[in-house]
Amino acid sequence: MRLLIVEDDRDMACFLQQALQEVGHVCDTAGDGDTGLSLARDGDYDVLIVDRMLPARDGIALVTDFRAGGRQTPVLFLSALGDVEDKVEGLKAGADDYLAKPFAASELLARVEALGRRREGAGAPDSPVTRLKVGDLEMDLLARTVHRGGVKIDLQPREFRLLEFLMRNAGQVVTRTMLLEKVWDYHFDPQTNVIDVHVSRLRSKIDKDFDTTLLHTVRGAGYRLEP
Amino acid sequence: MKRPLWAALRTTTFRLAMVNAAVVFALSAALVAYLYWVTAGQVEASAQSAAQDEYRTLVARSGAAIDGIDWLNIAVIERAAAGNGFLYLVADRTGERISGNITELPQIPERGSATIGFRYQVGLSPEDGSRRARGLVGRLPDGRILLVARDLGDAPIILSRASMAIWLGGAVGLIASLAAGMLLSRAAARRAEALARTAEAVMGGDLARRAPVTGAGDEYDALASRLNAMLDEIERLLRATREAGDAIAHDLRSPLTRLKSRLEQTIARSPDQTEARAALAETSAEVDGLLATFNEVLRLSRLETIDPRTFPRIDLADVAREIAELYGVVIEDTGFAFSTKIESGLFAKADRGLLSQALANLIDNALKYTPQGGRIRLEARAVSPRRAAIGVVDDGPGIASGDRARAVQRFVRLGDPSRSEPGIGLGLSLAKGVAERHGGSLVLGEGDASVHGPGLSALLVLPLAGSNA
Hints:
The structure holds two protein chains of two kinds. Chain A is built from eight helices and twelve strands. In chain A, the strands form three sheets. Chain A has a five-stranded parallel β-sheet with strand order 2-1-3-4-5, with helices on both faces. Chain A has a four-stranded antiparallel β-sheet with strand order 6-7-8-9, with helices on one face. In chain A, strands 10-12-11 form a three-stranded antiparallel β-sheet. The longest helix of chain A is centred in the middle third of the chain and has 18 residues. The two termini of chain A are 23 Å apart. Chain B is α+β, with helices and mostly antiparallel strands. Chain B has ten helices and twelve strands. In chain B, the strands form three sheets. Chain B has a five-stranded antiparallel β-sheet with strand order 2-1-5-4-3. Chain B has a five-stranded mixed β-sheet with strand order 7-9-10-12-11. A two-stranded antiparallel ribbon of chain B has the order 6-8. In chain B, a hairpin with an 8-residue loop joins strand 3 and strand 4. Chain B is rod-shaped and about 155 Å long.
């Protein structure tokens, strides 16, 4: 993917660039809000990674102005302010996701992937998705049923939502924090392995009686649903 | 510090006193003018016109008579003697008196006639006083001078005394209000000065300084007590920040020291790849711990700045159920018995995120301190028509009642200080902070007694918002 990093802290920008290029992304960088905005307007990027506090034009203003031009490119906010309020403010301004510093590189990569994938999906005709399919695992979003290889799998409502999120992001790494935020809507560090326990329960339902494993654990990062 | 007198002249109070004095003075002047107009003015005008009529009568008669001049003299003598209330004087062309009932001509006219107001002597000695009169004085065609006037009576005297009294009163009033204004303004200025002095002292770093409240219950007292309340709040926030800073410094110093020495050792020994890798991994884990501590402390401090008025009205039972759903499986998988006791319809103005976090911390605590196989229960129930309790009850060793106050302090971990449990001792402080932000409190008590001890109940007791709020 082609990415634009707008970050005034050079070490941080460098670290981001390295981490993203290592997995094959192409990155441009800008050190202030004005440069960032003009680059974002001129270039065709898949995802913008924007620091919240920038010289010349802060992150909120950058995203607001960028969106005012009708651009849909996904934006990931980075910020040292990790409060829910700050997140809400960032998302209101038009950012698509929000990552509080400090974060692990794996978290950043997973979120950038998820945003880039959303952009690909946006190109498709605007018909609401009613069925999801990963390998021989099928989910009917209307009937709210799940089958694997023709066998019906009974899921609790929350397990259903967890699986739905994993299926929508199939093939990508999703982190524990992403799951906690998107499936449970909690924005704090639970300190225990709550997500692991829920994921392993889900795994026992969808993978245990089948030969191939769909739900993989990615060490040091999170999970990936993949045939 | 003694305030210079001139400083009082610039105060608002003094200016107001001055405006007041000016208004009073202007009203007095207007009153004098009005009195004059309704009394003396009328008297003078009628005296003037009567005297003019008499003057014209005399002049007309003297002109019509054959021996006019003699006739005028006789008429004046006759009329003056008759005591008809008019004053007459006939004088020769030099102003020397010929006849009449007053002794002296107050003014010698050039030619024609003119109105005149004058004083004349009554009686023989000056002590008898003078009286005022108004009339007409003029030169007759033959060059002699005729004066006809009418006495103004007692009205001018009364009036002049009255207006003198009013002017004097006005002047005294002006001086008095000047003095009163000065005194008042100095008193008010002293109060304002006291407030200003407090502000200066606080700016200078004396955060404990408060504005004096005199007990007079006036607007200065109201202002002072508001100011003091504001200062209390600022001091509280600052203290919280300072405590957080101290706590961070205290709690981060030892891990940072460990970290540094490990890095130095690694560099000094120049070990092989695997050894360096292991050291780096350990260091990284330590940094994670540091960041977690840092985040917790920040979160705790930020809690103080959240405005509870923005909280929406939610059902505490939903918050409890969702947390139970998230943690229940974990608690059971870790080897505990988990149950819930949740009543519906506990509506309160609350923040779901904060409450969830507080509950998560309480569960975490219960997991750490309750021995394996213990029972953990999540509760949400009304404890009175206006309050609800939401929290965690376990059957572990509990906290002795004497230690409970200490247990909620930041960075305090009861029991063996060298224990290797992860955690930084902020769990209960955060739960307490969350409860207080919601206008409630964290209540620690005995839980379910078991072989391990009396158990612990850690409940956030929060005010309910009522069914129609």
